[in-house]
Amino acid sequence: MCGICGWVDFERDLRGARETAQAMTDTMACRGPDDQGLWLAPHAAIGHRRLAIIDLAGGRQPMVAADEGREPAVLTYSGEVYNFLELRSELSARGHRFRTHSDTEVLLRAYLEWGQDVAEHLNGMFAFAVWDARTEELLLVRDRMGIKPLYFYPTPHGVLFGSEPKAILANPLARRVLDAEGLCELLAFVKTPEHGIFQGMYEVRPGQIVQVNRDGIRKRRYWQLESYEHPDDVDSTVKNVRGLLDDIMSRQLISDVPLCTLLSGGLDSSMVTALAAKDLREQGLGTVRSFAVDFVGYAENFHPDLTRSTPDTPYVHALAEHVGADHTDIVLDSAELMDPAVRAEVLRARDLPMGIGDMDSSLYLLFKAIRGHSTVALSGESADEVFGGYRWFHDREAVESDTFPWLAGGFDDHTGAERLLKDDLARRIDLERYRAERYRQALDEVPRLPGETGHERRMREVSYLHLTRFVQILLDRKDRMSMRVGLEVRVPFCDHRLVEYVFNAPWAHKTYDGREKSLLRGASADLLPESILRRVKSPYPATQDPSYDQVLREHAGALLRDGDSPAAQLIDWDKVRAIVDGPVGLSGASPIRAALERFLQLDTWLREYRVELAV
């Protein structure tokens, strides 16, 4: 999977900046624990930390193309190209010769063959940078769905870049400033494409190429969602979805290291696990290994809430037995979830106080436990965005609201932090205005289908909002928590071919059986037990242990008593005190609990990252 970073400066000889370039590279050690590399040239410093997945001996980076004594290009790359074997054959036929069996070398040779058009040939999850020594030009490229992260920070004479903000912040040229717009982005629970939170920092947008040369910085979209008429009836659509998933899974099971699945007992992860079990069995590669997260006493003492009607464990075990998986439950208690060291790791993984409390801590601990057994895990992430699985897709009030659907109809579980802001600051930044502007910006992008009206037109908009805004929140979370422990997580439902096909299927097809995710349910009917096919969507679990809530309040109370928090510039202490002194035992879906979680994160972030406030 790996971590990448670099520095381009057209007015400075960076061969003398090894120490700073190495410091940037070192911040990516968690993403790449197996190897490291640093390449220096007069105007470019390229760093890499490697998590070895394919061709363990031959895939070292940064990788330099050496042709007839020249070094025309240097690549630093994170991710997986799932069609690299086909590309290798095509490039060999075009005269390219390979020294390794890695997908990295295939990507480098593909760039030499197709230049900026290389991304259009790739199927996979990737973020990479190519320094072309022939033109002294840098290309930053990100995969179509934004599975792999990539940030950049323009400087007076070039650019800094990295897989995560921490790599950029390790360079003294990068300032750590949070302005009013950055604060809004932190709190809004909407993901604005290209916004990097820190003032002057940006993300490469999914499906985008950023070109850096002496003339400046230019951006180009090589992929975006498009609308077209869907020619297939329901039965054919279900068949085609299954065919795509069969092909996707066969590609994503390729690995030279141990592989497993993440299993929650829901339709998405169960489908991934069942397909993996089927493919591995047919290839004679044994049984699939699966892992699930659970909490001490969770199933026995479970209480339904707005979004979770059932605990996961019974369904997890039913699926594991059904497909013959080698399954392990990772059972956590509240002491582990509230461990200050764990919470600090979660914040450092994200670089930003945008976490969702115990759901981040438990995911980090789950991945840490899995890493002791596997290096690659397959996830059901993004199926809800692709197939329309969330409850608000099917809630009339949420769908018809003039905002992002996940913020309407009582579903705004993770936006509670704004209620703690000082009143004058809240009026000044006007978070509702910010959300409204971002919503209009997103709607303006939606590719319309001529003649499409009414509910079908609106559900195309809702799907687009999820596939370009909401899914990024979850993909970022999964990437940061997994890569903090050096675990590669693959997301089969983000294959762009599947996304394009289902996006253009009519909403009536997606709900043909009167349920959520009808197409996925139909495509998996022969693989899954009836209990899972009938199960209602249940999000990732949050602890319901009252002692967790109590410890959360104790930590917040300690900050109030300390009186020396940098968050005091933003947060109204009386509002925090009212929560701390209020009733104990709030569920994981409570915005009050979310507010306390964000308050604690914000305080730690401002301290540790030495953030300058300009709000």
UniProtKB/TrEMBL annotation:
Annotated InterPro entries: Asn_synth_AEB, Asn_synthase, ASN_synthetase/amidase, AsnB_N, GATase_2_dom, Ntn_hydrolases_N, Rossmann-like_a/b/a_fold
GO cellular component: cytosol
Residues noted as binding L-glutamine in the record, renumbered to the chain: D103
Broad EC category: ligase
Catalytic activity annotation: L-aspartate + L-glutamine + ATP + H2O = L-asparagine + L-glutamate + AMP + diphosphate + H(+)
Active site: C2 (for gatase activity)
Domain of life assignment: Bacteria
Pathway annotation: Amino-acid biosynthesis; L-asparagine biosynthesis; L-asparagine from L-aspartate (L-Gln route): step 1/1
Keywords noted in UniProt: Amino-acid biosynthesis, Asparagine biosynthesis, ATP-binding, Glutamine amidotransferase, Ligase, Nucleotide-binding
Recorded GO MF terms: asparagine synthase (glutamine-hydrolyzing) activity; ATP binding
Pfam families: Asn_synthase (PF00733), GATase_7 (PF13537)
PROSITE patterns hit by this protein: GATASE_TYPE_2
Enzyme Commission numbers on file: 6.3.5.4
Site feature (Important for beta-aspartyl-AMP intermediate formation) residues: E381
GO biological process, one term: asparagine biosynthetic process
Binding positions for ATP per the UniProt entry: L262, V293, S379, G380
Sequence ranges assigned to domain Glutamine amidotransferase type-2 in this UniProt record: 2-215
Sequence similarity: Belongs to the asparagine synthetase family.
Protein name: asparagine synthase (glutamine-hydrolyzing)
